[in-house]
Design a protein that fits this description.
- This protein is of the alpha/beta class and about 280 residues long.
- It has two domains: about 1-155, 3-Layer(aba) Sandwich (Rossmann fold), CATH 3.40.50; about 165-280, no CATH class.
- The protein is built from ten helices and nine strands.
- The strands form two sheets. The chain has a five-stranded parallel beta sheet, sandwiched between helices. A four-stranded parallel beta sheet has the order 7-8-6-9, with helices on one face.
- Helix 9 (about 215-240) packs across helix 10.
- The longest helix is centred in the C-terminal third of the chain and has 23 residues, at about 215-240.
- The protein is elongated.
- The N and C termini lie far apart (about 50 Å).
Amino acid sequence: MEVIIVSGMSGAGKSTVLGVLEDMGYFCMDNVPPDLFINAINIMTHPSINKKKFASVIDVRTGKAFEDIGRVIDELKKMGIKVKVIFLDAKDNVLLNRYNLTRRKHPLSDGKTPLKALIAKERELLSSVKEIANYTLDSSLLNSHELRRRIVEIIKGESPKTLTLFIESFGFKHGLPTNSDFIFDARFLPNPYYIKELSEKTGEDPEVCAYFEQFDIVNEYISKIRDMLEFVIDYYSKEAKDVLYVSVGCTGGKHRSVYIAYKLKEILKEKVDIVLSHRDISR
């Protein structure tokens, strides 16, 4: 029998993942207390049911019983059951925004504690499960379709546990990103904003790309960023880090930062999984 345990931060996408697994033929249950998990497995393997693939979300909603999850996983392995643990994570500011949008109550809420403190407490409670997870996915910059693709790759064995590089362009005048590991400043580079026929275009348009390609300083800067990121990616991977957030900024986030972020993706896409986004391109 194959068992998938989905855990992680509230608001990180566990319900989406459970839906994907159900579509892939898994018998799925949500919020199963760890001490009842083995009983559920025994029921699934009963001849009258005979389910070969089972998946469940186990998280802090189960209360103190959640602390038994490590013991339960060990028992399942002793029973000869193949177990995979998938941990869903996201940056704190992303979780805060998602809760503000949905207005849902946090599972640890007591009606008094601020949401930010609840997220910190949940992260602490989940730290032990994150350490034993086979796969950790950060959904901060993933939409539902991208998250679904990653889960399908994991389950089918097409994607090893590797680092994902998130590259985001932004404009300094709209504020700094709050989740970056590295920020590169492109404001010193030639600016097509002051060229009439390029001003309303973006760093993804061919005319703007051609403009940047004529400057040695732009190409040199991209090359130096690439060297830095390749160095960091190698060491992040050796330390079993799963995500790296890189931001590239210019004044408005429409030309220089967009072009550099795009070029970095093209240069590094064979080395690492990349998610590209442009925060301020439409402003």
